[in-house]
Amino acid sequence: MNLDFSPVFADFDALLRGAIVTVEITACALLLGCAIGLLVGIGRLNPQRRIVYGICSAYLLAFRGTPLLVQLFIWFFGLPQFDILLPAFVCGVLGLGTYSGAYVSEIVRGAIQSVERGQTEAARSLGMSGGQAMRIIILPQAIVRMIPPLGNEFIALIKNSALVSLLTIHDLMHEGQKIISVSYRSLETYLVIALIYFVLTTATTMILRKIEHRLRAGGMVQ
After folding, report:
1. What Pfam families is this protein classified in (predicted)?
2. Does domain 19-172 correspond to CATH entry 2.60.120.620?
3. pTM score, two decimals?
4. Is residue 43 exposed (0-12), middle (13-18) or buried (19+ Cβ within 10 Å)?
């Protein structure tokens, strides 16, 4: 068997454009996931608030307990039954973002709970309300501690984003499948796609490590 990468490299620009779309949809989904995760994570801190805690827990169970592909199909194929037509890119961001938010919420909750309880008590003794103590004292420290696990979530999102090609989004995988449909060089195309994903995740890992090392050097991460 002879490998022929020439058809793949002939359309390499299309793969690069697809890689850009992959990064864009992943970044948007991560921002959405962080926003949802922050709200759900805080909502699950106090079981005494039964309604809020119950809603957040139900969201967590639903989105962590069902496949991402099924969730993407619900956004893209299910909503039109209610006359809700969203662009494929938006459906991809919503699907990835809501799925990621369930995992980010546990990162948020764990980071907040890792901050020493005495700091909350000290803030309350200074006359701060619970909300002020959370916003001014607890969250800034927790956000710094979230960076390493959020980096892992970002890398997972990059890889999971390959599924959005099934929504006709022109991401890296979708562009690769177009090349295969013309050249019939499946193995070569998937090898190049895998290499591009590897470069994206490796570059992301290196950037995150540098950020974490700087934070450690500054004494901000314990």
Report:
1. BPD_transp_1
2. no
3. 0.86
4. buried
- Cα-trace Rg, the chain: 21
Task: End-to-end CA distance of the chain: give it in Å, rounded.
Answer: 53
| Average pLDDT per 10 consecutive residues for the chain, totaling 222 residues | 87 95 94 94 88 94 95 95 94 96 93 79 73 76 82 91 93 94 93 96 88 67 49
So where are the chain's domains? 19-172
Residues whose CB falls within 8 Å of the CB of residue 196, separated by 6 or more in sequence, listed in order:
15, 19, 172
At 129 the pLDDT is: 73
What integer pLDDT is reported at residue 208 of this predicted model? 82
Q: Are 146 and 38 in contact (CB under 8 A)?
A: no
